[in-house]
Amino acid sequence: xWRDESVTWQVAHRPLADLWGLLDRVDAVHGLYYLLLHGLxxxxxxxxxxxxxxxxxxxxxxxAGVAAxxxxxxxxxxxxxxxxxxxxxxxxxxxxxEGRSYALVAAAVIWSTYALLRARWVAxxxxxxLACWLHEFAVLALLAHAFTGRRSxxxxxxxxxxxxxxxxxxxxxxxxxxxxxxxxGRPSVADWAAYAVxxxxxxxxxxxxxRELVRVALPLALLPAGLLMTVSLVNPxxxxxxxxxxxxxxxxxxxxxxxxxxxxxxxxxxxxxxAAFLPWSLWLxxxxxxxxxxxxxxxxxxxxxxxxxxxxxxxxxxxxxxxxSPDVYAGLQDLALDRTPTASRSLWGTELPSTEIRTxxxxxxxxxxxxxxxxxxxxxxxxxxxKRQTLVAYFDLCSIREVRGARVALYARQGECG
Length: 418
Hints:
The protein is an alpha/beta fold. It folds into two domains: about 5-290, no CATH class; about 295-415. Helices cover about 60% and strands about 10% of the residues. Strands 2-1-5-7-6 form a five-stranded mixed β-sheet, sandwiched between helices. A hairpin with a 2-residue loop joins strand 6 and strand 7. It starts with a helix and ends in a 5-residue tail after the last strand. The model has no long low-confidence stretch (mean pLDDT about 95).
């Protein structure tokens, strides 16, 4: 369970009143998802099973939706190929096994596309509103759908309804954007290269395809990611998972292209794709595929700490590593903590002023410090600098454990490591 999933777990376990208080300050964009998980955990608190079950089910539903759209636009074989291709795409598999909202967003967008083709405007509106309230960048699918529906009065009314119903969330989350998206940088060279591959594959598969299929699938494949990356040159908002649903467009185009090939071409091509995807698919099911592992960090702390030891998070946002393991966290004295996440209506709590952190830390005996990997840049903020300086001034480093994406260090008063 990596840090983003840990956020889902700990937020979804808060009482409803505290959850509402949090969303008023931060993470409103994920509010509906947290509420859904809160209800699911109330019914069955099955740990990682409960956390990930909605994403697994949503991905299966999304793959079925891609197959249904492909079948309607290009026939049975194209629909079957498109659904299977979508299911085996590595990014789709990655978010199928993650306790975040992106697989649910994709399922809602894909089935709204099917409703668009059937001119089921109430269902279309409801599904797209659901997608946008699970993550508001799903509204970019509305722009992709405009290539198909813009001449229809039903679509125009639906589009207006979606925008109107999304407006409250957009206004609330706009005030939180600095805290929500401040960690993002502009799209990298790798991002642009990946997008170029998507463009090339989509355009190649579109050649010779049915015009209606191209009108539906090509904008869905290219427009959401392309537009968000372009905007991110000015305001960095792009992360590939925010537009995961756009891969449905790629799958539709590729799925329709495969049946047009001769068997001596598509059979070895399919085998080559399977061979290429299999190692990636297996790797995605290992801890190494994520930035860190909150449960492994908690287990390392359990093995290192004694009851009553102090704990220090460098930086403070790494408190998340223990918030999803309250049994471990409860036995430690959090030296820098001022107000808990629940009391402060925040994700990670608030910390004391630098002078108080220095005083409390200087008076501690043993300190378990949770650190980023050594190759990560250090936060320059005064509180974080004081933590590092005080550890060096008053303590010896007794041991350090390397876990996925983190280090768990034990410090003791100088000369007392033994």
